[in-house]
Structures are given as C-alpha cells and as structure tokens.
Amino acid sequence: MEKAKINAYQLFVLIVLFELGSALMVPLAIEAKQDAWLVILIGMGGGLFLYLIYYSLYYYYPDIPSTEYVQKIMGTTLGRIIAFFYVVYFVYLAARVLRNFGEMLVTFAYPETPLFVINALLIVLVIYTVRKGIEVLSRTGEFLFVFMSFLLISASILVVVGGIIDSNNLRPILADGIQPVMKTVLMHNLYFPFGEVVVFTMILPYLNRSEKAKRTGLMAIGLCGLILSLITAVNISVLGVSLVSRSQYPLLSTIQTVEVAGFLERLDVYFVLAVVIGVFVKIAVFFYVAMEGAANLFAVKESARLVVPIGVVILILSIAVASNFSEFFQEEHRFVHFYVHLPFQVIIPIFLLIIAFFKNRKKSKG
Amino acid sequence: MKRRWMFLFLMLISLLFLSGCWSKKELPELAIISAVGIDKNEEGKFVKTHQFINPNNVAGGLQGGGGGQGPSVSVYTSTGDNILEAHFRASTKVSRRLYHSHANLLVISEEVAREEGIQDILDAFERDPEIRTTMTIVIAKGRKAGDIITSLTSIDRIPAEKVNKTLETTEKMFGEHIKVSIQESISILESSGRELVITGFRQKGDSEKGKKLENIQNSELDATLEADGLAIFKEGKLIDWFHDEDARGVVWILDKVKETNVNIDWEKKKDAIAYQVIRQKTKVSADVKNGKPAITIHVRAEGDIREVVVPVDLTDPKVIANIEKGLGKEIEKELKDSINLAQKNKSDIFGFGETVQRSYPDAWRKMKNNWHDVTFPDLKVNVKVEAFIRRTGLRTNSYLSQMEINR
Amino acid sequence: MFSFFNGKRQTKKNMKKEQNSSDQPNSNTKYPGYIDNTLSTNIDIIRKRTGNSSDIVFRSLKIGRNPEIKTAVVYVKGMVDSQSVNDFLIEPMMNNPALQEKIIPQEVLTIITEEVVALGGVKPVNDWDELFGSLMSGNTIIFIDGVSEALIASTQGGERRSIQESTTYVSVRGPKEAFTESIETNIAMVRRIINNPDLWIESMKLGKMTKTDVSVMYINEIADKEIVKEVHKRLKRIDLDGILESGYIEQLIEDQTLTTFPTLYHTDRPDAVAGNLLEGRIAIFVNGTPFVLLGPAVFIQFFQSVEDYYERYDIATAVRFLRIFIFFISLIGPAVYIAITTFHQEMIPTQLAIIIAAQRESVPFPAFVEALIMEITFEILREAGVRMPKAVGSTISIVGALVIGQAAIQAGIVSPAMVIVVSITAIASFATPSYAVAISARLIRFLFMISAATFGFYGLILALIMLLVHLCSLRSFGVPYMSPIAPFIPGEAGDTFVRKPVWAYKERPRLIATENLIREGKDQRPQPPANRQIDNQNQNIKKGDQNET
C-alpha cells in the first residue's frame, strides 16, 4: 500500500466522478422505457445497500485494502485466489470502460482514426496519472469535479432554455406495472453503475478520517443516482423513448438537439468533455486499484513498476474484448451484468461479511 | 530502470503523435453542403442533389472584394440505388470532401413522398454522425426537389438558409407552416398514435431562370421559393395537402402557433375586424368512457385588434366581449374544419392517439391497431376557445365611426 | 541498456570530487592563517593575494610620538563610502590628540576603537579569511605595525542604484518603492513595514567565489518551523562557485525541476514580501538582485497581485477571474482554433464557418502550420523587442505590426482570423500578472497546438488533463501546489479566484502557516454607527452651505 492519505471530500469526488464516468454516455436502464429514471433511483437504493456492505467490511478492517482482508477472512490460499480474481475483474472492467469510450469517439468524431490509437492516448494519460499516486489522482479529481459540475449545470440550463423538453414523453408512468422496473434494476442497473463502487473497498483504507467513510460514500452514491436519473429523464423527454433506446449515446443526441439564441448550438464538445473527464477518472481508479491489488498479491515493493505492464494489458484487452460494437454491447447486457458483476459485487462481499462477522464476534468475546 | 520506462513512454507518445492526423480535415478541403434534395429518376434510382456553399461568394467584400461575382452556391446531382450510394457517387464530380455538418435543409420531392414514402430515406440521415438530425425537412410541392435546391435567392444568399429562415419567420408570425426536423419526423413515424405533417415549398416561376445569376439581379425574382401548404402523411406516405386556414388549424392544435391574425365578420360585413393573436396556449386532453375515447381541445388566445373596417365602438367593454365571443367561434370553426379534413384522410396528424396513450395506456393498447382507420375518423372532439382582446392599438375607435357621426 | 552511460557518469563525478578536494588545501597555503605583526609583511600578503589589483588602496599613516607607529588603512576603491573613510577614519587618526602622544602599539587598537574612529562597526580581527571577506565586501582595514591584529571598520557604501519604482510589478495603488540590488536596503525596507522583533533574519554567504550574502527572513510566530528548517537544509547544501541572482537559488532549492511552472514566487516589491511573510511564507534575499524569493508558493498566487488587496474586493475578484480566463486564452487559444478548424468544423456556426472558409481558401498551409508561423513570428518579435535598446524597440513594433497585420494577410500567407487569434493570445500572455507563469504558458502553448493538430479536441482535452495532473503533482516545500483548491480548503478558497473582503480574512493559510492561524480579531466587519447624529449634523451644515445667499 502506498503511504498516502485522502480526505473525505476527495473520496466523495472520486466516487461521484467514477460513478458518472461511462454511465453518462450510454443509455441507462432503457429496458424499462419511460420509467428508466425510476429504475435508476431504485438502483441507487440498491447501490446504497451494497455500499453499506462494503463499508461494514471496511469497518472490520479499516487499515487494509480488500485484496488483503480477503486473505484474512478466507485464509491465505483461498483468499489469494479470490483477490487475484478481483484484480482481474478490475482490469477487465477498466478495459471495458476504455473500449466503450473508444467506440464512442470513433463512432461520432474520429471515424478514420484507429480505435487502438484513441484508446492508447487515454491509457497513456492514465498511466501518467496512476504513477503519481492516489493523492495526485484525487487532487486532480477535485478540479475535474468542479469542471464536471460546471458542465452539468450549464448544460442543463441550456437544455431548459432551449425549450426542447417535452415532459409528455415521460408519461405514462409505470404503464406496465412495477415488474419490468424491478427486473431492470436487478438485471442491470444495480451493477452498472452503482455496484461498481466495490472498487472503493481498495481505496477506503486511504481515508484519513475513517468515521467519515459511511456518510461520504452514501452521499456520493445518492448524488450520482439523482444526477443520472435526471439525465435519463431529460434524455427521454427530449428524444422520446424509442429514440433513446435506439441511440448508442443518448446524451450526445440530446446535446446536439440544443439550440439557444441561434448560435449556442452543436455543443458536442460538452458531451466529449464530460465523458472524457468521467471515463478518465473511472479508468484511473480501476487501474490504480488493480495495480495496488497486484502489487499487494505478488509482494511487489514498488507498485509503480506495475503501471506500464497493467496499462498495456488493459489496452490490449480493450481491443480484444469484442470484435464489433454489437458484440460488445450484447456481452455487456447478457453476460457481464449478471455473471460477472453479480458475484463480484454482491455475492462474494456478502459472503465475506458473514464470515467476518462471526470471526470478529469470536475475537471480541475472546 | 525508471529511465527505461520513461524512454518507452516517450517513444509511445511520439509514435502516436507522429502518426496522427487521421480524422483531420482542413476547411478549404471541404465542400460545405447547405442543402440536400432527394428525387427519383425514371429508372427508379434516387437522385441526390447537393447544394454546396461557395464561401468566397458568400463571405463577400473580403480580400479585394471577391463577393457576389459568382453564384453563392453550386449544385451537383448524383444517382444511386440508395442514399449512401448517391452520396458517394457525388464525389466523382466534386473536388472536395463532401461535408454534411452544416447542411440544414432536406428537400424531398412530392413524387417520392407520395409514391415511395419518406421512411426509406431518413435512416441514412439519422445514422451518419456527421449529419445533424436537427436538419429541417420540406416537401417540394409539385416540382422536383432539385428545382428547389438549384433556385438562387436574394437577401439571404444561401437558398437553404432562406428556406429555413422563411419557415421560422412564418411559423412565428403567421402560423400556417411548421418547421419539422429529421429527428422529430422520425419520432413521429415511429409513434403509433400520430402521423406526420411537413411543410411544402414551392418554386414559383421558371426553374431554368431560377438557376441563373441574373435571377437575383432583378428586384422581382423570376423564380422564387415560398412556403405553400402542409403535406399530410399517412404511414409515411404523402396523401393530401392542407392550405390556409386548414393548415393553420393543424398548427394551432399542435400548439405551435405563436402569433397569427384572425378575421371575423361584423354586422354583415365580411372579415371586418382583424385580430392579432399575441400569445396563445392550446391544451389537448383525452377521456376514455366505456372504451370510447374523446378529445378536448382548449385554446386560450390573447391579442389586440389591429384593423377595423366597420364603425364599431371599441371603447365599450360589451362590444369587446361580443367581438371576443365572435373570435372564439371563428377559431373554433377553423380548428374543427381541420379536424374534419384530417378525419376524412384517416390520418391522426394531431397526435390525439399519443394523448390517449399517455393518459390511458391500458385502453390505448386495445385501440392501437385500428386507431387511424376506425377510431380516429369517428373520434369525438370538443373544441373550447377563449379569445381575449387586451388592447386596440394606438387608437380607440376607428375614424370610420367619426365619419358616420359627422355625415 | 544504459549501464555504460551510468559507468561513464560515475567516473566523471569521481574526477570532479578529486579536483574539489585538491583545490581546497592549495588556496590555504598561499598565506599563513593569521595576521603577522609586521606591517609590511601584511601588506605584501594582501598585494600578493589580490594580484596587485589597482582598486585596492593602501594609505600609510603615522601616529604617536617617540616612536612613531606605522599604520596603514586598506580599502577597496568604489566599494567603500569614501566620505566616511576620509572624515571619520583617516582624518581623526591624523588629528586626534589621543594619538599624538606617546603610545605603545598594543594599546593602539583600543584607543582607535574607543576614542578615534567615529564609525558604527569597528572590530578587531586576526584571521586572514575573515579579513579578506570583509575587505572585499567594502569594509576598511586598519593595520598597525607591531600588532598581530587588524581592525575592521564598516564603511560599506559606494555608488548604488537608489530606490526606484518597480518596473516589473507595476501597480496603480499601493507603495511605489521597489527593492534595489543592496541586500541591507532591501531588508530594511521590509523591516520598515513590519516593525516587530518577531521578524527574524538569518544570514549566510553562498557561492565559493562570489560569497554572496543570502538572508532568510520569516516571522517567527507565524512561519512553520518545519518549512524554515527545510529551507535552511536546502540552502546549506548549495555548493556553487557563484550566485548572481536569486534565480540560481530558486533552481537549486525547488521541489521539482522537471516542470515549466515556477514553484517559488519572486517579487521586487517590499509590500508583497511583507504580505507573504504575514501569511507565514519565508523570504530569501540575495545580495545583488532586487528579486526576493518567497516560498512555499501555490499556483493561484501567480495570478494575484498585491494590488488586489488594496482594491475593493468585488473588483479584485472580477479581475482575478479575468486573469484566469486570460491565462486559459494564452494557453489554449491557438490550439482551440486549430482543433475547431481542422477537426470540428461542425461546431462553428454556419455563417462563421463560411467566413473562415473563405479566408482560408487562398491560404496555402494547413491551419496548424499557419498558426505555427504566426506564433513563431510573434515570438521572434517579442524576443527582439525585449532585447533591443528602447530607441529601436518602437521600430520593431511598427515593423512587426506591418508584417503580421498587413503584409502577411495581403500576401495570402495567413488568414485574418488566425491573426486575430494569435494577437489575442499574445496580448493575453502579457496580461498574466506573473511573468514566470506567462512564459511557461508560452512554452506549453506549443504542446497544446501539436496535440490539437493531431487529435482535435480529444487531444486537447487529454493534454489539459495531463497538465492538470502535472500541476496537482507539484509541491512547493511540501505544500501541494494547487492548494487551497486541490486539496480544497474551504476557509481559504476565499483568497483564490475570489478575494474576500479584508474583514473576512479570519485565518492564515493552514498548509503554510500551520501554527498561529488567527489573523484578525473578531467583528472586523465595519458596522454603520447606530446613532446617526453625526451624519445628520453634517448634513445640516451642508444644507446651510448650499442655500442661496
């Protein structure tokens, strides 16, 4: 573990940017049609619950990251195996986010540029950042958070002033009952983006005042849920359900629709800026966590040495993960959400928590 | 060790930067398209007409004043089995990269719209990231789309700009036409409870003369472009044109009217009082009783008296109230006429179906399939209009009243 | 891979060390360690040591009766205040009755010190090193034959630039005086502002050859002890032959050298130094330069000028926002133009796109090359303008304006839009209050232009984030460079982009001052008097005055 400390505000900022990351760009929970915003709010509830689980684990082991306490809870051998899979999981997720982001840029702004180059550029930046450590990342995050807020606030002002919101598109609410909503929550939305806070089990030990971890995390997730829900609602009300569900990047389409005062139009750069900021932080966090986890597992003293190898792995994996965008997208929805996210985000942590609970009870009694 | 990584890192960066510039496109390498027209030729192939901007002739007055020496736009046509092929074939004629991002007008000929429908055309426009889906669509009424595209215009040098601005202005000031974008058209096409309405544009005069530069050197143009009527669609195909008050009725129900003028008869004199609507709000709501839907339209209009050609005492609140009542009736009649016409065409251009769907999703599911053909033509529509006169301009009574008294 | 390089470097270092160690004893063998008791030997030693330099003056005097004692006064011409040497040293030594009697050489020193010399500092010395040190810094040495000690009389003076108005940090309101090249004057100027015994000064001589006076100044009660210690540690390890300007020291003690951004603040205004000392910073004075270093520095400091604190806070805030905006323009102005015109033409409104396209039709270069030509032309002009004698400077600007503004456009080499962009960028880079930050922006601007030319906005955004990461990773004496914005410190954000009213500055920056944070008393916000009597009275008088007579 690096000798570094971050404060509660920095943790808050990191969680917010991390959660917004790629969730800003893709259509979220659109399986539930015009109730997507509701799905996100409920998913946020689930996310809060998951965070409490992670927090409880942190509460038992406030000084060590999850890859280490897994070994304490499950025993060294089994713990190491699980920890290793977590590291792989983080690398894999980083690669997926990178791929998704690269696809977005190639599709909409740089059609002639190879995907590899787009991805490589971002990974170079992330390598540079991660080398500098978590403190620099979180300080940068503070700045980016200000930019992001500025972007979101001014964009929402523009959307409102532009008069393109047609709230009729959000009606009827719950036309098919609550069932499809809950189904979407459980199948998709709980895991992406909310369940992904599981990476912060690796970052929480850096917090300088551990008593603030709970409140900060819950507030950050709550804020993200609200923002994402609002953005989805705006997307649907501007574009209509069917267009959102057919769009690869609905927020982009919404922003492109904005026309204010005859010259504030074609604000695509807003979208690009927001997404680059979010995705940068998201990949950097995944990357950092994977690096620290790997360093911890393989007893590498200077974790910065792993930066370039892991960066290259993420880059190659991001290209190799799917051969085209449809495959990538279907994989995400059919496979990753249920078979990858569910065990890593929900099942294993709950399991760990139960064992940790009994172990620590014994200890305190003894 | 550290040095070596740094070295690799720098190599990687320089490699990336040196080999860059994939998506680079310099402005002078671009042929900026301002408008696109879609026709069909005898062989059934798409004919795509591109209107390119000649920046030097538009920007004008710069660098020794090259402006105005040539036409502000150049037009190239190309054919293909689908839109994309026609698009690429254009590159055999144009020396530069076709650049769509500034195109803001899509003209579709009436013929194509009637026979083929517009749904086959729009996908290419929606999918391409370079094309803006906020681009306006108009139907070339009675002519080929190419004629609209080639016609030169005065005041606004770029014809596409002229069409767009005309639409914006007339939608705002007169309310018989509406500006519809590709994105809106697609979402209407997708919807089961609404049909499409697109404004028609007509070229008046000789289309050959319209192409020439002399055309815009006259004070009255030989060939002009003007908005004319609303094209009514059913399942993506053009079926009818609405004109004048009928067209305005449609726009009114869609709540797109901002300002317009309404004339009413007074004391047997036809169209004696002209009333200008300054602002209005139209609300459409639906009711379903015993499985039968009913629509209520509520219009609330506010405005001024702008012209009076009969002696009438405008200082009397009672008279004003009477005029208001008359105005209400007049507007109501206009709206009902439009609705009847649409019902005859069996095309729910007002989106009443969507209104029902929003309020009664369950009932809608049952009537969805035969809405346009069975339910809509017999739909009961209540129209309630409240018109308010707020002011009467700079004068109270007309000089006509004084003349009557004096003589 | 690099092993043989390393080996080479190693040997070089070793050689240097050997040289160094062989230097040291050599210089000591030239003269004995202590002063001899014969006058002529001493004078010979000085002559030899200084290579008979013509600016060293030896004035022989004879004092006492039976026997007369030979004495000599030695000083460096131009370094001493010759008036005080004549009036208060030589003249009394010749005429003072105390020296006209019979005296023994051993007593002379005390007599001269206590009765004759009318100067502030007189002290005996017997060590050659110290003697040469003070002789070279402008003191006068008195030798007495038969005494193995000499007297040092402080007569430092000579021609120096007088205190003038600052030319680098100009302000409309506020004190006009600026530091000079003399360290004593400079320190005194700060003392004059902070009249407090807690203002501590520690001096040392740095530079093997130049023996430059360097002083560290801080306020004992406020400055962080750890940082003071760190400053000392870093200064102590400086081993250089010469220090000609504070820039030498800056480069030797900064936290990170691989950056274009200054991590130490420098100024030539005493009020700026005083203000920073009060915030807990540490000032480093170097003799021979008007520029004083201040640390730890934070990034936002370079966008603040002392005048901000003298102006009204609302105006100062607006100006600060403007400066940040200006900085951004000077950083990314041309890059944004390149990105838009070569990658994202859809972002320009159609009319503007047509105008720019029309201008660029005849330009034979890609936008990037065009921008590069203009930027480089501008840099040439600027460099020429700075180095030129003032009389020629105006010619340069006229020629430059013609070249950039007129001819280049008419020749069709650049487009007018590009000229606008480059000129705005140029003006913006002059408007940044700190020259140190402005020149770093000037350099980074080219990097941004390259990244924008290869990957458009994407490249530009990545480059910006990279810059941000870099800035966030910097530290100045351990204080994060971007504080108090990142890490965000709520209480201090009031002195960053915004400038709080003076009554709201309750605390000092806590990363810099660490202890003794309370800056001002409670209830500093001015309250209008509850009793309006005085106002009314005044009004009455005025009313009476204004009545027609």
Automatic annotation (TrEMBL), chain A:
Keywords: Germination, Membrane, Transmembrane, Transmembrane helix, Transport. The chain crosses the membrane at residues 12-30, 36-61, 73-95, 115-131, 143-165, 185-207, 219-244, 269-291, 303-326, 338-358. Coiled coil: none annotated. It is a multi-pass membrane protein. It is found in: Membrane. Its main location: membrane. GO terms for biological process: spore germination. Pfam families: Spore_permease (PF03845). The keyword Oxidoreductase does not apply. InterPro entries: Spore_GerAB. One of its GO terms (cellular component) is membrane. PANTHER family: SPORE GERMINATION PROTEIN A2. Belongs to the amino acid-polyamine-organocation (APC) superfamily. Spore germination protein (SGP) (TC 2.A.3.9) family. This is Spore gernimation protein KB. It comes from Domibacillus epiphyticus.
UniProtKB/TrEMBL annotation, chain B:
Residues 24-199 form the Spore germination protein N-terminal domain. The lineage of its organism: Bacteria, Bacillati, Bacillota, Bacilli, Bacillales. InterPro entries: GerAC_N (IPR057336), Spore_GerAC-like (IPR008844), Spore_GerAC-like_C (IPR046953), Spore_GerAC_C_sf (IPR038501). GO terms for biological process: spore germination. Residues 228-393 form the Spore germination GerAC-like C-terminal domain. Pfam families: Spore_GerAC, Spore_GerAC_N. Its main location: membrane. Coiled coil: none annotated. Keywords: Germination, Lipoprotein, Membrane, Palmitate, Signal. This is Spore gernimation protein KC. GO terms for cellular component: membrane. It is a lipid-anchor. It is found in: Membrane. Belongs to the GerABKC lipoprotein family.
UniProtKB/TrEMBL annotation, chain C:
It comes from the Bacteria. The chain crosses the membrane at residues 282-303, 324-343, 393-413, 419-439, 446-469. Residues 1-33, 516-549 are annotated as: Disordered. Residues 21-30 have a biased composition (Polar residues). Its main location: membrane. It is found in: Cell membrane; Membrane. GO terms for biological process: spore germination. The keyword Transmembrane helix applies. It holds the Pfam family GerA. Keywords: Membrane, Transmembrane, Transmembrane helix. One of its GO terms (cellular component) is plasma membrane. It is a multi-pass membrane protein. The keyword Zinc-finger does not apply. InterPro entries: Spore_Ger, UPF0353/GerABKA_families. Belongs to the GerABKA family. This is Spore germination protein. It comes from Domibacillus epiphyticus.
